[in-house]
Amino acid sequence: MLKQRFVGWLSEYNNPLWRKNPDRDARFIYNKLNAPMTILWLAAAAGIDERIIGTALKRVKWSERPETSAAAARKVLAWDIIAHKLDEWRPSASHIARNFVAYHNREQIGQPFLSGDDASGIDEATFFTAKQFRPETLLGNRLWVFEGSGSPRRYTLACHGTIVGLKKRARPAWYQRKRRRDGRSVVFRLDDPNPVAVDVTGLGWFKRLRIQQQSFQNGLNSIDDSNAIFALHRLANPSAEERSVQIAQAQLSREAKQTTDLIEIASRKRDETTRKIFIDARLGQGQFRADVARLWSNACAVTGCDIPEMLRASHMKPWNISNDGERLDPQNGLLLAAHVDALFDRGLISFWPNGTMMISDAIDSANLRRLRLPSKLRQKLSAGQQRFLAHHRRSYFN
CA geometry: angle at 385 spanning 114 and 363, to 5°? Predict the structure, then answer.
């Protein structure tokens, strides 16, 4: 997509009819660029060998003035090299993809791509927008969905893909406005049916993007920031090593969220006894654990394991979207063996209302055999448990 974006720009700028000054062609503009990161991005978009780009990167001294650093990059990535590479392919203007961003409030709505509780092995997603887009504006373009949660707010790149459908749709109940009843349901094909949410809160390009998008108050909107587009495509196509880092960062993010929750409890609950009750509940201990264990006869809800040290009391409806009553309600808990709890906590498994286990595509058949999965809950779920479990399917299950 980056290549198509660059070639589209190049093709238009090489046409004198599109330029204010007909003497300033693409070569002229390229040689006047004073942003070394933009030059490296253009080279990557053109398909220049990564080793050559790496050599150019080593030549750049970030402590120098931007124009000096840009000139150093161009000594390796001369215009003729890039122009020659571009001549190898040149898609028509109709295939030039644009990039759109959207913001999703997980705490209020749940996951953006689960339309119901019957979704598993998902390869397409939907996102609602109140804007009256025409199909030709969106179809075939890229959509990047960000999520925000917590206080202070933390942001993740939740999912991304190619827009393949657009349908007129009545506004959901949470988005009703007077005299504004319709919007568009945007369908996009996910690049990864089991996306790993990547924390982007502190990244420079994302901070600039938030400012450009007025903290996403613009709704679903196109972007043209080359640094942001380059960074997004790097996140979408990580190497095996980068993928491992993303997974590790997601784990750290979960741990940081738990710490934030505990701090919030300590600051909000004045009474020491009440504070301890909620802290224990957040950690799956104390009275909450005892009540959940009693509901499941002191054994894992899946395996039947009754070794106390192996068992965890896990919340079905996420803590951050539960009220105080729900946080302490044993109906909102599952007693699970540690390995089953780890899968449940990370959204790799969930359960249908009848207790049948749902398995994420991220778990291959070999590991399913090793873990002796899928399995089923050992007892029938109450109406309250089914209600809480529905939140887990919507908010966590991948």
Answer: 50
Q: Where are the alpha helices (DSSP H) in 269-337?
A: 272-282, 286-295, 324-328
- Identity at 342, one-letter amino acid code: A
Residue 14 is given by DSSP the state T
Count of Cβ atoms closer than 10 Å to residue 239 Cβ = 9
Q: Exposed, middle or buried, 138 (CB in 10 Å: 0-12/13-18/19+)?
A: buried
- What is the structure's pLDDT at 281? 59
Q: Report the C-alpha gap between 204 and 197 in whole angstroms.
A: 18
* Closest of 148, 243, 155, 129 to residue 191, by C-alpha: 243
Nearest 5°: phi and psi at 125? Answer: -130, 160
Give the span between the Cα atoms of 199 and 249, in whole angstroms. Answer: 7
Q: What integer best gives the mean pLDDT of the chain?
A: 75
Q: How far apart are CA 178 and CA 283, in angstroms?
A: 43
Assign 26 to helix, strand or coil: helix
- Residue 99 confidence (pLDDT): 92
C-alpha closest to that of 145 among 123, 130, 126, 132: 126
| SS3 at position 103 | strand
Cα(82)–Cα(69) distance, integer angstroms = 18
**Kind plus residue range of the DSSP H or E element containing 97:** none
Residues 281, 122: Cα–Cα separation, whole Å: 32
Provide the 3-class DSSP secondary structure of residue 395. Answer: helix
User: What is d(CA 154, CA 255) in angstroms, rounded to the nearest whole number?
Assistant: 13
Which residue in this structure is represented by tokens 């030059």?
A: 39
Strand residues in 121-204 grouped as ranges (E): 124-129, 142-149, 154-170, 182-190, 198-199
Amino acid found at 171: R
Is omega for the bond preceding 152 within 30 degrees of 0, making it cis? Answer: yes
Instruction: Provide the angle, in degrees to the nearest 10, between the axes of the packed helices 50-59 and 36-46.
Output: 170
Q: What is the mean pLDDT of residues 188-192?
A: 84
When pLDDT is averaged across residues 335-342 and rounded to a whole number, the result is 90
Provide the 8-state DSSP code for 317. Answer: S
Beta carbons of 253 and 160 less than 8 angstroms apart: no
Closest CA to 123 of 185, 186, 194, 184: 194
pLDDT, average across residues 34-47: 81
